[in-house]
Amino acid sequence: MPPKLSVRNLFKVFGPRPGKAIRLAGSGFDKDAIFRETRSVVAVNDISFDLAPGEIFVVMGLSGSGKSTLVRCLNRLVDPSRGSIRVDGTEIADIGREALRQIRLRKISMVFQHFALFPHKTVLENAEYGLKMQGVSPQERRERALQALDAVGLSGWTEALPEALSGGMRQRVGIARALAVNPEVLLMDEPFGALDPLIRAEMQKELLRLRERYNCAIVFISHDLNEALSLGDRIAIMKDGRFVQVGTAHEIVTEPADDYVAAFTRDVDRSRVLPAAVVTADLEPLIAGHDRVGAARERLEEVPHDSLPVVDGTSRFIGLVDAESLADRPARLDVREAIRKEAAAVQSDAPIVEVFGQCAAGHTVPVVSASGRYKGVIDPLQVFAVLGKDQTNGEAEIDGRADDEADPMADETPPPAIAAAGLPARAHA
Fold first, then answer.
1. 408-424: per-residue pLDDT in tens?
2. Same domain (yes/no): 47, 137
3. Within a 10 A sphere around the Cβ of 32, how many other Cβ atoms?
């Protein structure tokens, strides 16, 4: 499938000598050295990436890293100094103003951190605005705006003015306005940064739901790593205008490209990021219609688990059997008849935190694919090992501060995720 958005070798330089600044950047000079030589700032430095339909691509970094300049280059609110930006294969980096206006109206929408609503227009009028600029008829734009407002939970607020809304509600109006035009690319510049933590978490869940409904490709700018890890299909860590690393949440946390990225991820609650797949161990299942209760009892005595998974003839998980459910049943009885009724499995992409309670109790946790096919079981010891692993090697520097003041007793303290689960510190040693 071709990318919805394709960016190649994008530069943005602020200052009097952009050409020389780009040449110096290509030769490996850093941002400060380029500024001393040219009095120009390389805000976006040779950025390339592709964005697939329906993908959320999160760009994160510290203040001044260039992330907001980058997202504004993508719809040319800021004109890039050099590079290619293609939407559905159409180059927009150098098109004329009217053609660019049509791209903004029909292909790319943007949601800002501070809402950018018209204070004198109602919620419905704000949501209709992009459609009005497209020349859509009043009846159609009303219908489409109402659909978008309903999607963000504001169908009862159509006649209210923005001043009557909470911050979270105003941001929902901004999102509805962007979605009403059915954009193919949605740009979001720290859209939840002005919201309180509870509303922010709610809006993050809402965004994932809306992505599924509208299937638009999303570039999401954030300075919050936990937000990036929870939302992003892929994440780009940005520093001094460059992408230091691009990868999935799992890759960013477990395989940081350098100490800078490792320092970012060091305090992340890995239990909410890493999927069950990374702590899944092989355990041969019993097969309904083939295996019998007697054989199951013998197998249970041979494995270090309190129960055994049972699958059907197509390898789909159908339940667990344990010593209690197998007891007092005829040895020749089909193992299907001894399945525990309350048994449940976790999908392989579910965060590890969802199985803490079962792991802490020593229970077997089956893992399945999205289609329900059996993949293995959670290994509690592997859970503790993965969550306790230290990814930071040597000194890392963020925002000018070296990470050289580590607690000498740090190795004696369990990681926050393990401590929160009520597990002993020695479990991760």
1. 333 333 333 333 334 33
2. yes
3. 10
Please give the distance of CA 321 from its chain centroid, rounded to a whole number: 36
The answer on 282 and 177 residing in a single domain is no
- 247 and 319 fall within a common domain: no
Both tokens assigned to 76: 């040319």
CATH number of the domain at 280, please. 3.10.580.10
pTM of the model: 0.76
Residues 227/195, Cβ–Cβ less than 8 Å: no
CB 180 within 8 A of CB 211: no
Q: Which CATH number is 261's domain given?
A: 3.40.50.300
**pLDDT tens across 24-73, in order?**
999 999 999 999 999 999 999 999 999 999 999 999 988 889 999 999 99
Edge-first strand listing for the sheet containing 41-51: 41-51, 5-14, 82-87, 90-91
- What is the residue range of 124's domain? 5-272
Model confidence band, residue 272 (pLDDT cutoffs 50, 70, 90): confident
- 183 secondary structure, DSSP code: -
- Give the pLDDT score at 241: 95
Q: Are residues 261 and 308 in the same domain?
A: no
256 with 278, same domain? no
- pLDDT at residue 392, rounded to an integer: 46
What single-letter amino acid sits at 236?
Answer: A
* 214 and 101 within one domain: yes
3-state class (DSSP) for residue 142: helix
Answer yes or no: do 338 and 256 share one domain: no
- Region of poorest pLDDT, from 184-193, 241-250, 357-366: 357-366
Same domain, 333 and 261: no
203's CB contacts (< 8 A; 6+ apart) are: 168, 171, 172, 191, 192, 195
**Number of domains the chain is built from:** 2
Find all residues with CB under 8 Å of 305, minimum gap 6, and list them. Answer: 283, 364, 377
Closest among 49, 45, 41, 47 to 26, alpha carbons compared: 45
Q: How does 179-199 read in b/e, with b if 16+ C-beta sit within 10 Å?
A: bbbbbbbbbbbbbbebbeeeb
Residue ending a domain, among 272, 297, 330, is 272
